[in-house]
Amino acid sequence: MTITYEDFKKVQIKIGTVVNVKKNERAKKPSLVLNVDFGSKIGIKQSSAQITHFYNSENLVGKQVIGVCNFPIKNIAGVNSEVLILGAMEKDGKVVLVQPSQKTENGLDIA
Q1: 3-state secondary structure of 60
Q2: Are 81 and 48 in contact (CB under 8 A)?
Q3: Of 8, 28, 45, 102, which is least packed with CB atoms within 10 Å of its CB?
Q4: Residue 99: pLDDT band by 50, 70, 90 thresholds?
Q5: Please, is 41 exposed, middle or buried when counting C-beta atoms within 10 Å of its C-beta (0-12, 13-18, 19+)?
């Protein structure tokens, strides 16, 4: 399926910094709950993500990530997930996060 540039412009893809991480204890598949600071216009948003193969609170806090910020809230095992954190899916289902190559300002658009 092909989309137009106008379709793409509707998706709010932003840079944010992980400020807090905890396990989503109620999730059927191992998941982490991330609080991500997307800057002053968007603020801190919560996401439940199945990224436990490579990530934990020790190596995520302070790390910048990329997220889709204008999806509707989705309840995932009792967590209101407000953003979709982007990652590459390996063949075995493990997720490798998409990140900026250098530290940048929270809230910047991905173009």
Answers
A1: helix
A2: yes
A3: 102
A4: very high
A5: exposed
9 membership: H or E segment, kind and range: helix 5-9
**Residue range 45-76, pLDDT digits in tens:** 999 999 999 999 999 999 999 999 999 999 99
State the CB neighbour count (10 A cutoff) for residue 73. Answer: 12
Find out whether 35 and 42 touch, Cβ atoms under 8 Å. Answer: no
Judged against a pLDDT cut of 90, whether residue 111 lies above it is answered with no
pTM of the model: 0.94
Structural contact between residues 84 and 71, judged by C-beta atoms closer than 8 angstroms? yes
Distance of CA 11 to the CA centre of its chain: 14
Task: Round to whole Å and give the CA distance between 9 and 15.
Answer: 16
Q: What is the CA radius of gyration of the chain?
A: 14
